[in-house]
Amino acid sequence: MALQSGEKLPMFIGHVWSKQKSRWTLMGLRLLAFLAAAAATLVMVLNKQTKTFVVATIGTTPVNLTLTAKFHHTPAFVFFAIANGLVSIHNLVMIMVDLLGSKFDYKGFQLPMIASLDMLNLALVSGGANAAAFMAELGKNGNSHARWDKICDKFGAYCDRGAGALIASFLALALMLVISFLSILNLKLVNSSSHNSHNNIIALPN
Amino acid sequence: MAETKRIFTFLLRFIAFCTTLSAVIIMISSRQRATVLVFSFEAKYSDTPAFKYFVIVNAIVSIYGFLVLFLPSKSLLWRLVVALDAVFTILLTSSISAALAIAYVGEKGNPIAGWLPICDQVTKYCNQVKGALIVGFISVVLYMLLFLYSLHTVLNPLLLEKS
């Protein structure tokens, strides 16, 4: 890195941040994103509800049908769980790299790698959250044209837990967006200070 | 070298614009009337919010792609194009995954929820939706390539070019 520790990095809002502060902000955001994505994964994976319906009555004996709603019946929720799991692992690894990886020789590829991986995970979590959101909307409202009944009135607890997982995942998505932006900003500022270039994407007030 | 790069980028953007536009057109024109028992119903793309979202996102991205084709190459707006490329790539991935999730339920059904697959009754509609999704997937891949390329060109993150 071309900057010494403690040297000031001007940010576009006009305030002057020290390098340490921006590093700890990024790490705090990563911790929050890790917690949100891990919460989403756990809630979705452990989401299960069993319900018994009375289907018919033969004489005086009711005929019961037991149905279990599990997350792996729906491929969109499986993708959601996998995507959020991968994002939480990514954030955990990035925190570890930030805390413990200062002695490892990255040959100059550390910042571009972090930025690209952040963006890949952003796309992943956006795909997963969105697919699960539309499936949840289908389960909540049904689709009268395709004769698909809504299931949230029967499996209320399953739907509520799924909604909680979705909210956590969208929170993780927003946090990943901010983290990607900050990583690219880190990349750009280091890049522009290491050689005298005209590619300054953000006007640096000095 | 710079000329080839510019022509290559322009071509890639043009193809990406064409794919998003065709995804919109194929999805909008998919409709089929079918009779099941005594009911006659029509399957349209607008029955499902996921397909409507897919059409809206692809329409926005094709308008954006069309406008970017006319950007002169030395303009300062290319920095904005990098950011907009990022936003639109992520929107495209989310729209394709949502549409794929709903299309999967339409094709295979969901036995636990009692949802029967509808592709047997409206085969032509199903095939057209599948075609639109394939084209949409190609557009996602192309936009990802474009985003990485514009990031590399404008920001020069790997310091591969001395300037």
UniProtKB/TrEMBL annotation, chain A:
UniProt keyword Membrane present: yes
Family to which this protein belongs: Belongs to the Casparian strip membrane proteins (CASP) family.
InterPro entries, A to Z: CASP/CASPL, CASP_dom, CASPL
UniProt entry tagged with the keyword Membrane: yes
Membrane topology reported for the UniProt record: Multi-pass membrane protein
Subunit structure: Homodimer and heterodimers.
Protein known as: CASP-like protein
Primary location: membrane
Organism of provenance: Gossypium tomentosum
Compartments, as annotated in UniProt: Cell membrane
Pfam families reported in the protein's UniProt record: CASP_dom (PF04535)
Gene Ontology CC, one term: plasma membrane
Keywords assigned: Cell membrane, Membrane, Transmembrane, Transmembrane helix
UniProtKB/TrEMBL annotation, chain B:
UniProt superkingdom: Eukaryota
Membrane topology, as annotated: Multi-pass membrane protein
Family matches, as PANTHER family: CASP-LIKE PROTEIN 1U1 (PTHR36488)
Subunit organization: Homodimer and heterodimers.
Compartment(s): Cell membrane
Family note: Belongs to the Casparian strip membrane proteins (CASP) family.
Keywords assigned: Cell membrane, Membrane, Transmembrane, Transmembrane helix
Bilayer-spanning residue ranges: 7-30, 50-71, 83-106, 132-155
Domain Casparian strip membrane protein: residue ranges: 5-142
Family annotation (InterPro entries): CASP/CASPL, CASP_dom, CASPL
GO CC annotation, single: plasma membrane
Protein name: CASP-like protein
Principal localisation: membrane
